[in-house]
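Anyone up for a design puzzle?
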């Protein structure tokens, strides 16, 4: 018993060192980490966004909120959501995380929408145009479906949208922080002439419309 009493200080020290080592291995503060993810254009919360933090993966709720009970100050926060440009946040760039305090270490973020969609129609009839070419750049384009719908993924915050279709005059517009853009194309002059001229009046050698 006397031997145990003499060894008690050494045992306590060893226990303390063991606990400290385990905490260091975990590497995370005892303060939960959380925040809100919002749409950079509208300010509305982004639900179902995926949060990757170390080996842990979280999902934001309907209010765009997330919370992690364990985290490491050496981690990088990766955030992604359908229809948005993914982002990464390095903890070293977040001074409030150097000495986090209860009840919550907060890191909020904004996600920028990176998609645009819409419908292309005939300016005179209002009917959808199938097969129209919609371009945001030389490397980013789409062709409209039978109902005139198109969608482009990976667009920047500001760009020029150009639309062209056979027998129609091309059209374009500059978009900034828009996710929906509908355009109506006017039939070309030749196409309108064909529509306005009865087939029986075309010259015998004329090219059929």
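Challenge accepted. My sequence:
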């Amino acid at each position: 018993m006397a031997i145990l009493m003499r060894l008690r200080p050494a045992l306590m020290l060893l226990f303390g060192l063991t606990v400290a080592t385990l905490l260091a291995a975990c590497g995370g503060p005892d303060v939960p980490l959380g925040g809100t993810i919002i749409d950079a254009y509208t300010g509305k919360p982004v639900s179902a966004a995926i949060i990757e933090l170390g080996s842990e993966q979280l999902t934001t709720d309907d209010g765009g909120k997330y919370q992690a009970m364990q985290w490491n100050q050496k981690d990088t926060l990766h955030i992604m959501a359908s229809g948005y440009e993914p982002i990464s946040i390095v903890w070293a760039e977040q001074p409030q995380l150097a000495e986090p305090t209860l009840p919550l270490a907060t890191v909020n973020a904004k996600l920028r929408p990176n998609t645009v969609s819409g419908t292309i129609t005939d300016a005179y009839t209002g009917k959808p145009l199938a097969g129209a070419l919609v371009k945001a750049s030389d490397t980013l384009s789409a062709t409209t479906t039978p109902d005139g719908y198109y969608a482009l993924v990976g667009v920047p915050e500001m760009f020029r949208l150009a639309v062209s279709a056979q027998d129609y005059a091309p059209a374009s517009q500059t978009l900034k922080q828009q996710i929906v853009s509908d355009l109506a194309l006017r039939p070309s002059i030749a196409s309108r002439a064909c529509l306005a001229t009865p087939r029986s009046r075309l010259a015998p050698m004329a090219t059929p419309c």
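A detail worth pointing out: The domain at 115-185 is CATH 2.60.40.1120 (Immunoglobulin-like).
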